[in-house]
Specification:
globular; alpha+beta; twelve-stranded mixed sheet; homodimer; 9 helices
């Protein structure tokens, strides 16, 4: 595994304070933080929650800072404000004995074992144009099983069962508190933060088999790289105006902006919460911009040895080797 | 809530021993047991795992019998043989102080918060004939979110968002150990046992909206009543030869036999494990026989005040009020 490049530093406190003051913009957590799950190199079993100090200054181990804190992000989110305040304090104080240098950190997906991985299909205007499809009037919702989630720098395993595995960079968000029938104007207060996802897709299974139900093509093990951090809503100036890119072997194959999203975070939260109770840790993938392999002429698919990098401005970069 | 009728007694030890001796028939657990999750009346928060003693003789509280045992079925299954052996011992010994009378028991779904709820569509020959659909050559796999699960005698809540909520009695099974690329001949050794499900379905959302992805119509809160027990594989003579019925307000609307299943338990386990790693607690719904409301002429849908009862011989009965 290669260590992540930490090119994105924390948003300054003053900016985050200004953002939090805008009604409807404030998420579950008012502080600008990059929350991570990690294990120490050599301790592969032990999941820890931490706060990225930014600029390569390591990660504050939350449980080392306060032994009453939980071991997983989902449990931290379930604690609500108390957990977020502790994380903020840990970042501010950063006692030397609680800071783990990046050389000793293996980043994991910022959320593991969520109750739901909710995905939105056909949600970029330019992606609809690419395939001559009409702009959907309602969000199209499908899902992956949580078992598909893998770390931000872990491998994507090509299954023998598919010959058409494709990339899809997506802005993801994570639910921070329980809710049902959430109104659009309240929706952002249910969102803990944002992260980067690759909605890896076996097009043969998605489009040609399984009775047109997309699930199987979307949910092979390792088909949901996620990370590198859960970036709290206050640390993102405007989630719907961010450059979003996918690079395969260093070549940009997707290059768009989240301003092309048809249904934005608030609308997706409101829509899905009509059907199901949302819970802390639920992961949402909001859809992909144009440039996927299946709509190229001729189509291009991932092969062993490829490196796929997904980038979203302010949120981060994930990079996965295809094996 | 009405208390369950316990019309089905435990299979005798001698029969279960004979069944377990048949190669490929033995599941995760060699013993014939009806495992339940419950809370004591008045202690609604506290999930407990128990073993149904049969014939109305109450439930052995597993944690009361052995404090090292976990509080949830999923954790019990994750323990493997040790957990099952303890449950078997608890049933045999049944110390009076560990037995909770049925009057004090509120049965919950035998599994809560599984990683996956995997569903098979169009999996009964007679259900395909009913809708003039061809017999599928491969299983059609879709899913519900775990948040849809509700208890065997809990209410089904009609959502304002649907006018076409339908019933579907289904044989469900629960995975007992982790596996990937499982062969059909080994599949039953990954199955902990069977239970009864109602795959409640909002036909408007399943069939006419959401880009033909079935997920939303299948996953409203309370759309997966499950129970009353996880009946271990050894307690079922032949899971593919069981009478299966659904009654609405006492009238039989579905009445078939699991011998009509196109893809049986072993084939479904093998098929799905090509795509995803199966984990203890994963719930599979195997499909429904004919008689659903949407294919009646005129169509019939559930309304407030209805009582839906799903029955599978040897496995049990669930009964849910529609509210």
């Amino acid at each position: 595994m290669r260590l992540p490049l930490h090119s994105l530093s924390l948003i300054s406190r003053s900016l985050s304070d200004r953002l939090s003051a805008i009604p409807g913009r404030r998420g579950v957590c008012g502080a600008a933080m990059r929350l991570v799950q990690f294990c120490r190199q050599g301790d592969e079993g032990g999941v820890r929650v931490g706060v990225d100090r930014g600029e390569g200054q390591g990660v504050v181990d939350l449980k080392a800072f306060d032994p009453s804190m939980p071991m997983t992000m989902r449990e931290l989110l379930e604690m609500g404000a108390k957990g977020m305040q502790c994380a903020q304090r840990a970042l501010e104080v950063s006692p030397a004995q609680c800071v783990v240098p990046f050389a000793e950190v293996r980043l994991l997906s910022p959320v593991l074992a969520p109750e739901k991985v909710v995905c939105v299909g056909m949600n970029y205007r330019d992606h609809c144009l690419e395939q001559n499809a009409p702009i959907p009037k309602e969000p199209i919702i499908f899902s992956k099983f949580p078992s598909a989630i893998t770390g931000p720098f872990d491998d994507i395993t090509l299954p023998d069962e598919s010959q058409e595995v494709d990339w899809e960079v997506e802005l993801a968000f994570v639910i921070g508190r329980k809710g049902k029938h959430i109104k659009e104007e309240d929706a952002m207060s249910y969102v803990a933060g944002f992260t980067v996802a690759n909605d890896v897709s076996a097009r043969d299974w998605q489009m040609k088999r399984n009775g047109n139900q997309w699930l199987l093509g979307k949910t092979f093990d390792s088909f949901c790289p996620l990370g590198p951090a859960l970036v709290t809503t206050s640390a993102v100036t405007d989630p719907h105006n961010l450059g979003i890119r996918c690079l395969v072997n260093g070549v940009a194959v997707q290059n768009s902006n989240t301003d092309q999203l048809i249904f934005k975070t608030e609308q997706v939260v409101a829509w899905v919460s009509q059907f199901v109770t949302l819970s802390p840790g639920d992961v949402f993938l909001t859809g992909t911009p144009p440039g996927v392999g299946v709509f190229r002429n001729p189509p291009v698919f991932l092969k062993k040895g490829d490196v796929v990098e997904c980038q979203i401005d302010q949120v981060g970069v994930i990079r996965n080797n295809v094996v």
